[in-house]
Design brief:
By secondary structure, the protein is an alpha/beta fold. The chain has 15 helices and 19 strands. It is globular. GO terms for molecular function: L-lactate dehydrogenase (NAD+) activity.
Length: 453
């Protein structure tokens, strides 16, 4: 079995041909199909010869979710996200970090349900809970598979929301802890009649078992306990995230990686470095969460519905979170007019420290409902191409005067990850805060690189 990504279609175009020949058991990713349709490249299925079948059977994937971080990732084929037609004030262009590799992915086992996306019978080994689910539907879903790595509370909530959206053929939970992922997947599947979705949900132990995915959400890692900062998790979680990002690149060379593991800013850049993906396809989830916290707290203080509060949290997911009050409104009024200066300052400070506040109240574990929902929200905005402006941890190339590393910025996301970094009119003071946050993140990333290199 061979996985054909968008790079396979690009190779056909570069050769001046208009046909991509694939084997009967090969996987053609949804992104490859989109690329072929746009480029008018015909995908032709060819019978697999006996000798070819023997060669395929002899190949084995080299992937494990527990691989050491020191293992160097094999370069993968990656294509930067295409440019979008947006106003001149919105910038997205390839930068020096947009890395492109060359090696094709290894074949996978078990086979991908993407082969059965039009209603054909699905083998038991790719069904919910390892074969405990019954019939499958003919699918009109927009995306084949989203894999959520880490079946802890955050991963569980994210998987539940993604399944409930009913715009994905299959959601796969991955966790090394026994049958935990399979059990949670089966439990989520049992909710399908109550919530009205037909998404397949499956739980496995490794990314290889999950199969090629359109999006890989990494939530796995050690959680905070009372008294810990997000940065205290760096060494342990770097080993986990680095290995997972490298595996994801081998198995899903066309995927978008969404990083949720803390410390978020450092882990996002670490995942980019170990995956070899272009920066446009490695994104961190922080700003959506921090923005939601500020909006909820502000709505409660102002006595309005949360949808009446607009705000976007930028910078770091931590002490250097930047809340541009010039962009924050309550019922259409500037937040600084709706509330007193002291009230606004207190709300910003509480939003910045809300994660620690939740940890202190729980005593064991950290926040999970809002982080899980925020991660799912970002994936769904990519799938649906909503075009909404939201905050994400991305790598700028000169926007806001920042040209290196990852930092939280206003963005628009598309099917292939980052579409655009949106330039909003910040004050000079807010821009300085943002650049300071980027500098502090870069310092921490440098320290991490010294440990993991």
């Amino acid at each position: 079995m061979t996985v054909h990504g968008a790079d396979s279609v690009d190779a056909v175009i570069a050769a001046g041909a208009n046909r991509l020949i694939v084997g009967r058991t090969d996987i053609v990713t949804p992104l490859a199909r989109e690329r072929a349709r746009d480029a008018k490249v015909e995908i032709v299925v060819e019978a697999t010869t006996a000798s070819a079948a023997a060669a395929i059977a002899a190949r084995v994937p080299a992937s494990t979710a527990s691989a050491p971080v020191s293992a160097a990732p094999v370069p993968v084929s990656a294509t930067p996200a295409p440019s979008s037609a947006r106003p001149a004030s919105v910038v997205r262009r390839p930068g020096p970090h947009d890395v492109v590799g060359s090696a094709p992915p290894a074949p996978l086992s078990p086979p991908s349900p993407a082969l059965y996306r039009r209603g054909a019978p699905v083998p038991a080994d790719v069904l919910v809970g390892h074969g405990n689910s019954a019939s499958r539907r003919p699918s009109n879903a927009k995306v084949g598979r989203v894999t959520v790595v880490g079946a802890g509370n955050v991963g569980m909530i994210a998987a539940m929301r993604l399944a409930e959206s009913d715009v994905i053929d299959e959601v796969v939970l991955v966790d090394i802890a026994g049958q935990r992922a399979a059990g949670i997947a089966l439990d989520i599947a049992h909710a399908s009649p109550l919530l009205g979705f037909a998404t397949r949900v499956r739980g496995v132990n490794t990314l290889a078992e999950a199969g090629p995915s359109d999006y890989v959400v990494i939530t796995a890692g050690k959680a905070r306990t009372p008294g810990m900062s997000r940065t205290d998790l760096v060494d342990t979680n770097a080993a986990i995230v680095g290995a997972l990002a490298a595996d994801a690149a081998l198995i899903s060379p066309d995927a978008v990686l969404l990083i949720v593991t803390n410390p978020l800013d450092e882990m996002t850049e670490h995942a980019w470095r170990t995956s070899g993906f272009p920066t446009s396809r490695v994104i961190g989830m922080a700003g959506v969460l921090d923005s939601s916290r500020f909006r909820a707290l502000t709505a409660s203080r102002a006595g309005v519905h949360p949808r009446e509060v607009s705000a976007v949290a930028l910078g770091s997911h931590g002490a250097e979170m930047v809340m541009p009050l010039s962009q924050a409104t309550v019922s259409g009024r500037p937040v600084t007019e709706a509330l007193s200066g002291a009230q606004v300052d207190a709300l910003v400070d509480r939003a910045r420290n809300s994660g620690a506040e939740v940890v202190g109240l729980l005593k064991s574990g950290s926040a999970f409902f809002t982080p899980g929902l925020a991660a799912a929200r970002m994936v769904l905005s990519m799938i649906d191409e909503t075009g909404e402006v939201q905050a994400a941890t991305v790598a700028p190339h000169g926007e806001y005067g920042i040209d290196a590393g990852y930092v939280g910025l206003p963005v628009r996301l598309g099917r292939r990850g980052l579409d655009e970094i949106v330039e909003v009119p910040l004050t000079d003071a807010e821009r300085r805060e943002l650049r300071t946050a980027a500098d502090r993140i870069a310092e921490r990333v440098s320290a991490l690189s010294a440990v993991t290199s």
